[in-house]
Batch of 3 targets.
Target 1
Amino acid sequence: MLTSINPVNGQIIAEYHEHNPEEINAIIDQTALAQNNWAKTDFSERAGRMKALAGILRERLEINARLISLEMGKPIVQSRAEIEKCAGVCEYYAKHATGFLANEPVPTAATQSYIAYRPLGVVLAVMPWNFPFWQVFRFAAPALMAGNGALLKHASNVTGSALAIESAFEMAGFPANLFSILKVPGHKTGEIIGNQHIKAITLTGSVGAGRAIASRAGSMLKKTVLELGGSDPYIILEDAHLEQAVQVCVSSRLINSGQSCIAAKRFVVVRSLRKEFEKQFVQVMREKIMGDPMNEDTDIGPQASVALRDELHRQVTTSVKKGTRCLLGGRIPDREGAWYPPTVLSGVKPGMPAYEEEIFGPVASIIEAAGEAEAIRIANDTVFGLGAAVFTSHEDRGRHIAETALHAGSCFVNDSVRSDPRLPFGGIGDSGYGRELSYIGIREFTNIKTVYVK
């Protein structure tokens, strides 16, 4: 059985039947058949269904937002924003897929030669719990508009969200079984990859999960796109607009109660600003409200599970034992549920979990740097490379650092790192490979085919 537990109070929300091997194979066969027919449709038909899907998401926004908050504890205001973002990505690819995948003429000695983008087939998506709708739709919208079929192996604790997504595709008029969910625990994912109908795999999750999936898929020469962990550095230079930088940094650190791969995690502050940055940062963090995720005023909900909360606390306490100073928080509240307060660690140095590891929760690591060169070195001193940001009042300085000096897939100046359908999203190093979103993302799951006629 797959079990969904409310992280607010530890109570069981629902239990779900786990698909057995025969059921799994039958679902995959049905999705492959549906995809074969879907690949023959034109873009206008696909776009019509995708626009209808955006409408269904908006009609059911409150229902699905509350489901997200119930299953994994996201503050309700953020859950609503997540659903709206999903509707937006559906509309984006409905509008632009035709242009993104149009044949591209290439002058050669041939009478005609061009690049064509054709669907691969059935794509398996292995998705996490932290953005239970958005992670799915940022893959599914471009994949289906490209003519593929989709199988979703979602995190077990958000199975209700997975079922709601599957229902939304059905209500929007997509062919039956074109988008299907597989109710299986994570350790059985590798067995599914071997099915002959699965042509590619996309995963958002941990580094360990990414390595396991990539190894299994690679042994069968199946394409993968991996978006893994991150330990995003935010550099604050001496000419930064400090109050603005603090507000952005706090907001980014606490998005989704700190449970985001692209949340700000390491704050690398030049020496001349470090004390004042800390003072303002702690004050703003202290003002944030931790409480019931269904409350409109809540800034921070619980962590997604007690086990994840306990691992977060281990990272904090180990870092303190190794010499970091805890300026705020750092204690597990005496209450039922998976709660952890906004926490600020200062004097973070190499060798500490707060420096070396991904901290997946509302814990900020402040690291002092002598100046710009050292700040850049510290920012890049990580196995991850998902996002990074720099704060400076000189636009050219910030752009130069973002473009040429920071090692990450997305580098922002004077703003928080985020995903946007118009821009490619993904990382380097232990943050994975491949890209989602933009025209690049929709082409990831196509056969980029050369056609030569003479």
Target 2
Amino acid sequence: MLTEKIGTNAGLVYTVLSNGELNVKAVKKATKLAEKDLNLAFGWLAREGKIKFIEVETELFVSLT
């Protein structure tokens, strides 16, 4: 089921971010997720209030709340 896959990927992203703030490209590289799957995982975590996004100039960073 797609919802289970998104939840699993969200857990993977959460684990990667537990080491600290990263830019989106670094999260993608560390998780090896496709961009669509990464964005769905970000949405899941953002909706739960577990991550925050910070834009510095043209680069987007993400970290745990």
Target 3
Amino acid sequence: MAQSRPSPRAWFESIRDPGERHGLDEVVYSDRSGGLLQVVHDMDALAQKSADEWKALFELRARRNEWPYGSGVWGKKEWVLPDIENENVVSMYEGHTNLFWAERYGREIGLEDLWLKLCGNSHTGSFKDLGMTVLVSQVKQMIAQGVSIPAVACASTGDTSAALAAYAAAAGIPAIVFLPRGKISLAQLIQPVANGAIVFALDTDFDGCMEIVKQVSANDGVYLANSMNSLRVEGQKTVGIEIAQQLDWSMPDWLVIPGGNLGNVSALAKGLDMLFALGMISKRPRICVGQAEAANPLYLAYQRDFEVFEPIAARQTVASAIQIGNPVSYEKAVDALRRYDGVVEQASESEIMEECARADRTGLFNCPHTGVALVALRKLQARGLVQKGDQVVVISTAHGLKFVDSKLAYHSMRLEGIVSEHPNPPIELEASYAKVRDRMKHEIDRRFGG
């Protein structure tokens, strides 16, 4: 007699119709009406452990070498992909990123308790690693079970393609990425190239690349790795769980996060939802999403109380990873913002670069998307929504080294349309001690008051 498979502890479920379910090993990205799916967990099974037992387990596993639990994602395996076999996990020990106390920057802008969650301190330099480890691991298990998947593909403005290429290379699975030609940084372009992905640079924007990857997945059996695939959310939601763990199982007053395709904010809220449901936190933070003014469809919808959503043609922005005019996770993001008393702000190009420069002067090295979130924070302060004594965590989504082009252009005063207020170009002098000494003393006096 064939042995029956145990009941799944997680599954795909339609957001619109909870009665529609699919197995995580099915190749499915939307429900029968074309709406989004979400991964749902057997919360009754998870509730068999007490809050204190979960906390102790997560603490025990953190940064240890027992495979795969030392990862910040897989240390919470039961909350992420409980039914995956450990041998099919593809991990680079992502997560456990630094919660950086921005003491000097906070003091300069009038906040006493400001933190940055440095998600860019990861294998490929962005928070996308958290979701990609889950998706690629599930694909590896599906292939092991005999599902025909010739390759995994994504449309990307840079960071998603880097994460997919690296994790697929580690798993030995072909990866295909579609990038808007000339609209991502060189550092982002070289990552999938170096990891052996098939890279297409197309004469379109992200939304155009997204249309191509949808057709490839629908017609050619290639597995879709963009954030409309709910598996990605399961890894990305661990950001919120890690923040709670790093703050001794508490929550700040505010979480501020940049938004483009909007999978990140819905993922953040989902992690918080699970913490609440299992009694591990009691305080509900407010969430703010920051968008670039050049790519701000969520902000425009927020201005109309989310009653109307209209995709836009995103214009060029230094925050290239969120240059998206038709975000696929819009519905999930709106739901998250409503649950967490959320607000949306926007940032102009000059505001982004000036706030990055100001924060960098205090020891940070921010990507422009983090700059968007910092501008949003400053606007919350100006509106009186964030007070001096509030605890605030800003989600820094990528490492600044991936965006040196825009930083160099800013400090060289070559950034089109922006007059740099705080440039710091290298000082070019002949190799003369006397001239170097005089200029050195001048700069110390000018910058630091002697």
